[in-house]
Write a structure and sequence with these properties.
seven-stranded mixed sheet, globular, alpha/beta, about 250 residues, Rossmann fold
């Protein structure tokens, strides 16, 4: 599997705590904590009437935002508890989203060339074989359709985020050894990817890079529980937009 089963279990245990802390909106797509959202970045375009696939949909907020704008949305996540939260939230918001439990690269239920947009926000950090995910995205996307993804910035993986200033490097940029991250006593496994891993992974899957964004922190609003002052100095998140070139 691209995502170890312990990550799914970890997210099942952490889902309620995460959702309470994140307080994610359901009226606009978000790409990560403390960042400008789609209203500012304008990466997705008009989704009305489009078929959108949200990989790693979590509690469903981004999927719901797209559905409110007239999209037909499919959300996939490996955490059953996150999907349960998403189902309740869809009911509360009065929108319909097709929710699927499974691996992010297990998209056999979708026909080739059937999706107008793939969105993945902060999910690929938990995927070891990103190439497999990109190949599946290419298969299901229509020719010329975009993929927009955000993940932890490769440079941020190098830093000790709790060390304060001066910033300290605690691992090699080139070290792809899985990293155990502990949140509220729950252990998650993250898989570091270099910039080249991400960019070449997309191009090798015949997804043409169109835009790369290293967003500065949003200056407005309260900070999330995951805010660190080092975010002012080094980007925590990177966003890629690519398009399917052909079959």
């Amino acid at each position: 599997m691209a995502v170890p089963s312990d990550n799914a279990t970890a997210w099942d245990r952490y889902a309620s705590t995460y959702q309470a802390g994140a307080r994610l909106p359901t009226d606009v797509v978000h790409f990560g904590p403390d960042l400008p959202d789609e209203a500012s970045l304008r990466l997705l375009g008009d989704v009305k009437g489009r078929r959108v696939l949200d990989l790693g949909c979590g509690g469903g907020q981004a999927a719901i935002a797209c559905a409110k704008q007239g999209a037909s949305v499919i959300g996939v996540d490996f955490s059953a508890e996150q999907l349960a939260i998403a189902r309740r939230l869809c009911d509360q918001e009065g929108v319909k989203v097709e929710l699927r439990h499974g691996d992010l690269a297990d998209l056999a239920f979708l026909n080739s060339d059937s999706v107008d947009l793939v969105l993945s926000a902060s999910a690929l950090d938990y995927v070891e074989d990103i190439g497999r995910v990109f190949r599946q995205c290419h298969r299901v996307l229509k020719v010329g359709a975009p993929l927009v993804l955000s993940c932890k910035h490769p440079l941020w993986q190098v830093l000790d985020e709790d060390a304060g200033t001066p910033l300290l490097a605690h691992r090699s940029y080139f070290d792809r050894t899985p990293v155990d991250v502990v949140r509220e006593g729950i252990v998650f496994t993250e898989f570091p990817h270099t910039f080249a891993d991400l960019a070449l992974g997309l191009t090798r899957a015949s997804l043409r890079l169109e835009t790369i964004v290293e967003p500065e922190p949003d200056t407005a609003g309260p900070r999330s529980p995951w805010w660190r002052e080092a975010h002012r100095l080094v980007p925590r998140t990177i966003i890629f937009k690519a398009r399917k070139e052909g079959n």
